[in-house]
Automatic annotation (TrEMBL):
Top-level taxon in the UniProt lineage: Bacteria
BP GO annotations: regulation of DNA-templated transcription
Annotated ranges, domain HTH luxR-type: 340-397
InterPro entries according to UniProt: Sig_transdc_resp-reg_C-effctor, Tscrpt_reg_LuxR_C, WH-like_DNA-bd_sf
SMART domains tied to this protein: HTH_LUXR
SUPFAM superfamilies recorded: C-terminal effector domain of the bipartite response regulators
Protein name per Swiss-Prot or TrEMBL: LuxR family transcriptional regulator
GO MF assignments: DNA binding
């Protein structure tokens, strides 16, 4: 369905008491806003608002699906209620019947839901009955903007319950705009997929000795460093299945609910940044087998928030999850310790074994030396490191620069 705004004629129409503006001048203004947004991402809000008002849409929505992770990675638009969009992102997007049809079409090829789904379908479909209609929306006209091996970006314009679907003039206006929107999105494709580079250095995470994962808020694993991969092989308390993080049932529900809550706070924009980004802890314990100690894994997580998420829609945040497990505790950096404090190889060995949790008697047994020799080594270490007891020495070793890196 195509059409154009005719020069020299009025292209302003009345709809539900609001004036649409499909004039050539309004079209040119929107084009300028679009390319301004390419240069400065904060300009997308102005573009979506101007376009929504021009075609008298109750909402404009542009979303992206990151194909690598199979998750909705981006959401932005005009007149999108925070609660409604979070519900779509976190739950209802996966059962949206319009989405499957839209993804079958070529970029720029429109679907109009009123032509595909009759009233009987709408009356029994959970997406419409539980989500779309309760948030006041009813009709959508949408199309793919970009669809490649990494991402699918979809644009849609919505009308509310009690309104009429978009007409030929409005769709024609959007048709004229679509080649420009496709070009603009292609110029910024990196902004529509989950980006570890935008939030934390990929190489940095891989070098960390501590097990670290980057996840979407629905648990899809974007990145797991080598230490995390080793941890997965050493414990049954955490695992991966179909690219998602798996925790014991009660812990999984708690973790997922808190991640969703934090994403809601970040998108709401009214919560202090420190509250959103502070670390949460989640001790995960397994019942002890007879005669054995219970296994406990400590998880610490925080939300990594892209600059535009706070107070606006856009690229979704990631969760950074750090683990502590006795079998994955990072070793002492022996070379750095020896160089920093002029320790002998024997003294460095004593520090390393202390860091692994051995007592002085166990160190003597492991090294094949007298207990008194270990005590003398510790006295020399205390003197060289300006510490007085084992607790101070351990604190020093844990805070050595670069101690967390390979």
């Amino acid at each position: 369905m195509r059409g154009t705004a005719l020069p020299g004629k009025s292209n302003k129409a009345k709809h539900k008491g609001i004036t649409m503006d499909l004039s050539s001048q309004r079209y040119e203004d929107i084009i300028h806003l679009l390319y301004d947004a390419v240069a400065e991402p904060s300009g997308w809000s102005g573009f979506f608002t101007s376009l929504g008002e021009a075609i008298d849409a109750s909402a404009i929505h542009m979303l992206a699906i990151d194909k690598k992770h199979g998750s909705l990675s981006y959401s932005d638009g005009f007149n999108l209620p925070v609660d409604g969009e979070l519900a779509y992102i976190q739950k209802y997007g996966s059962i949206d019947p319009r989405m499957a049809l839209m993804r079958q079409r070529a970029p720029g090829e429109w679907i109009h839901c009123h032509e595909l789904f009759d009233d009987d379908f709408v009356a029994r479909d959970p997406f419409y009955q539980e989500f779309l209609i309760p948030v006041g929306r009813r009709y959508v006209s949408g199309c793919k903007v970009v669809d490649d091996e990494n991402v699918c970006v979809i644009f849609s314009a919505l009308r509310a319950v009690g309104e009429q679907p978009l007409g030929p003039q409005e769709v024609g206006f959007l048709d004229r705009l679509m080649p420009h929107l496709i070009r603009a999105v292609r110029m910024q494709l990196q902004n529509y997929t989950f980006s570890t580079k935008a939030l934390v250095g990929h190489a940095l995470v891989n070098k960390l000795r501590q097990p670290v994962m980057l996840l979407t808020t629905d648990g899809s694993v974007v990145l797991a460093n080598e230490a995390a991969t080793r941890l997965l092989a050493s414990t049954s308390l955490v695992s991966l299945a179909d690219g998602k993080l798996m925790l014991p049932a009660g812990y999984r529900d708690t973790f997922r609910a808190e991640c969703e809550r934090l994403e809601g706070l970040a998108r709401g924009g009214d919560t202090p940044a420190d509250e959103v980004s502070e670390y949460r802890s989640l001790p995960i314990a397994a019942p002890a087998a007879p005669g054995l100690a219970a296994e406990t894994l400590y998880a610490f997580f925080t939300l990594l928030v892209p600059p535009r998420v706070s107070g606006a829609f856009g690229l979704r945040p990631l969760v950074m999850l750090l683990f502590y497990h006795p079998d994955s505790a990072p070793p002492v950096d022996s070379d750095l310790l020896g160089a920093a404090f002029n320790l002998t190889p024997a003294e460095v060995r004593a520090c390393r074994l202390l860091g692994e949790g051995l007592s002085t008697k166990e160190i003597a047994s492991r090294a094949g030396i007298q207990h008194d020799t270990v005590r003398k080594q510790l006295q020399a270490i205390y003197r060289k490191t300006a510490t007085n007891r084992q607790s101070e020495l351990m604190r020093l070793m844990l805070n050595l620069p670069l101690n967390a890196f390979d």
